[in-house]
């Protein structure tokens, strides 16, 4: 068994903390595969109209619909009442972070659906 000293960085709201841990790492291929899967996950920030951010850690092939549903549930509103945008373009629920070329810590915007518009 090989001992592995790792540094873990955790970003908090306005400060950073560094946690050091010493873990025993067995020499197996299963562990390497798990590490690769964890490394693939990215964090996506969802920012609402008031500026509040909610973070989701997802794999690149996760359907955005899953993120939309989780966000709506956290906010206590139906997912159908929300619209999600990336650089001003609406995101479809069947798209994935990989399809959208999202990277770690990228932001998508969330707005309440607006029915109708301005009338003179």
Tell me the fraction of residues in β-strands, as a range.
35-45%
Q: Name the CATH architecture of the largest domain.
A: Roll
What is the number of helices? 2
Q: What is the helix/strand order? A: EEHEEHEEE
C-alpha Rg (nearest Å): 19 Å
Helix content: 10-25%
Oligomer: single chain
Low confidence ranges: 1-25
* Count of separate structural domains: 2
Indicate the structural class: alpha+beta
What would the average pLDDT be, to the nearest integer?
78
CATH class value of the largest domain: Alpha Beta
**Secondary structure tally: strands:** 7
Distance between the termini: 75 Å
CATH superfamily of the largest domain: Phosphatidylinositol 3-kinase Catalytic Subunit, Chain A, domain 1
Shape: elongated
For the largest beta sheet, what order do the strands appear in spatially?
Answer: 4-3-7-5-6
Can you offer a commentary on this structure?
There is one protein chain. 10% of the residues are buried. This protein has two domains: 1-40, no CATH class; 41-120, Ubiquitin-like (UB roll), CATH 3.10.20.90. Helix content is 20%, strand content 38%. With 120 residues, the protein is of the alpha+beta class. It has two helices and seven strands. It has helices spanning 29-40, 64-75; strands at residues 2-11, 16-25, 42-47, 53-58, 82-86, 89-90, 106-112. The N and C termini lie far apart (75 Å). The strands form two sheets. It has a five-stranded mixed sheet, covered by helices on one side.
Please write out the topology.
Blueprint lengths: L1 E10 L4 E10 L3 H12 L1 E6 L5 E6 L5 H12 L6 E5 L2 E2 L15 E7 L8
Parallel strand pairs: 3-7
Antiparallel strand pairs: 1-2, 3-4, 5-6, 5-7
Organism: Phytophthora nicotianae P1569
Pfam families: Rad60-SLD
Protein name: Ubiquitin-like domain-containing protein
């Amino acid at each position: 068994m090989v001992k592995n000293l790792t540094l873990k960085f955790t970003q908090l709201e306005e400060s950073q903390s560094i946690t050091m841990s010493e873990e025993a790492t067995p020499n197996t291929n299963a562990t390497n595969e798990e590490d690769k899967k964890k490394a693939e996950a990215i964090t996506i920030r969802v920012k609402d109209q008031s500026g509040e951010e909610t973070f989701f850690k997802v794999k690149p092939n996760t359907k955005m619909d899953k993120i939309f549903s989780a966000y709506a549930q956290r906010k206590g509103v139906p997912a159908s009442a929300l619209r999600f945008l990336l650089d001003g373009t609406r995101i479809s629920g069947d798209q994935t972070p990989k399809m959208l070329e999202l990277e770690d810590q990228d932001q998508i915007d969330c707005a309440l659906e607006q029915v109708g518009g301005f009338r003179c």
